[in-house]
Amino acid sequence: MLTDVLHNIYSRLLYIENEPMLFSSGTFWALFLVFLPVYSLLKRRMWQMVLFVTAFSFYFYYKSSGMFVFLLFATSVLDWSLSRLMMKTPYIRLRKIYVGISLTASLGILAYFKYANFFLWNISALVQGNFQPLDLILPVGISFYTFQSVSYIIDVYKKRVAPTRTWIEYAFFLSFFPALVAGPIVRADYFLPQIRENRHATTSEVYLGLWLIILGVLKKAVIADYIAQYNDLIFQSPTGYSGFETLMGIIGYTMQIYCDFSGYSDMAIGIAMIMGFRLAQNFNFPYKAGNLTDFWRRWHISLSSWLRDYIYIPLGGNRKGTRRTYINNFATMLIGGLWHGAAWKFVFWGGMHGLGLAVHKASKPYLGRWSDNPVCRAFFWLVTMSFVALLWVFFRADSWGDSWLVVSNVFNDFSLSYFPAFASARMLWLVLMGVIIVAHAMPDGFWDKAGQWFVSSPWWVKLLIFVITVQLVLELRGEDVAPFIYFQF
After folding, report:
1. CB 65 within 8 A of CB 141
2. pLDDT digits (tens, 9 = 90+) for 417-448
3. Do 422 and 245 meet the contact criterion of CB atoms below 8 Å apart?
4. Burial class, 39, CB count within 10 angstroms (exposed 0-12 / middle 13-18 / buried 19+)
5. Which of 221, 255, 448, 455 has its CA 20 to 30 A from that of 19?
6. DSSP state of 136
7. Which of 231, 234, 254, 253 is nearest to 242 (CA)?
8. Which residues are catalytic?
9. CB burial class (10 A; 0-12, 13-18, 19+) of residue 446?
10. Using the 8-state DSSP alphabet, how is residue 178 labeled?
11. Peptide bond into 184 cis (omega under 30)
């Protein structure tokens, strides 16, 4: 009996294909409960703490991507070595060569795994060949840690940050497990000083971290995973449902992707906070935005700021005239779309957002003539959210063709007469949708105050909220733990 138990535990500790380590899985929390007391004991011994967290982070990535953990290790060694060489040489040309080697290696690996089949397929289509895709498995989170790697090397080259003295510091930064596989994207100038500071979390920060984790679990494992069950039916059969049902699926996915991704970010920030580290805010209620520019200031903030600082501004930003500003906006969002996936539907999604940003900037002189009243604000909000929601179709649908089928189905067969039957069959779906809409619409500062209330509440209130959260997850969970949407990027 004991041998069987030990064997089962051992097998759970190994990498299991198609079962990546998730923040919403029991396996992660069991390991984290073992990790946390050891981490607390080592916190006063900085280098032992750094080594322990780095080892756990690499193990976490192993549980998520298997042997691709060696790719992460190799990236960390190459980047750190080149950054040290850059610091030592006074020659600009040699520094540029080191940057070129690093960027070629990091972006080349990303391009191979993520885009090789996409480019080969398009070449094959042009020459009317019989394309056989390469047998490639995309390493989980490769885009996120590649972006961190690229920003570190560029910042060292431009002397915005000093290279870390030891490899283990850089490996800690690159592999920090709360943000490793789905962000927020961490900047070296923001995070490296925190390693050296080695600050202990206060009691309030521990409770606030727990609050963020609870919010993240509710968003992901309760709301997103449940409403996804209906949304998936719509996108799996683009013409199998009425226009009204299809529209509900589109709105449902709009809420699902927000709850899924912001839920992960909340958990990542909360876990880091409990450990005494600060990660930057990644979402700021994006569906409150009244225009597309404001939406991208609120959605996936760490990616938006990365694209701005390392693509948009180097392209010239808004410093080279109006026309060039529009082109730079469009090009930046086009690259952002391609970053999300190697398919034309992602290129279209990014390109349309780029076009939308350019149109908004061009329209600002005219929009300023509109009265700033509730009716106008509601109109601009509705236009913005309709644009965002329709483009999410191209993000979610299985193919370019399915995307258009879903959109056209809304306009070809729409009738509100379907609502009573839909409400009867999907009441809990509507309730959960209503919950997230109301939660999103709360006044600014409401959730900050709610977090502070949780921090100051009695222990039994915290325990009650935790128990209710666990019970909701158990009641509404599917047969399998659903992976986070952004794991595929």
Report:
1. yes
2. 888 888 888 999 999 999 988 988 888 889 99
3. yes
4. middle
5. 255
6. -
7. 234
8. 340
9. exposed
10. G
11. yes
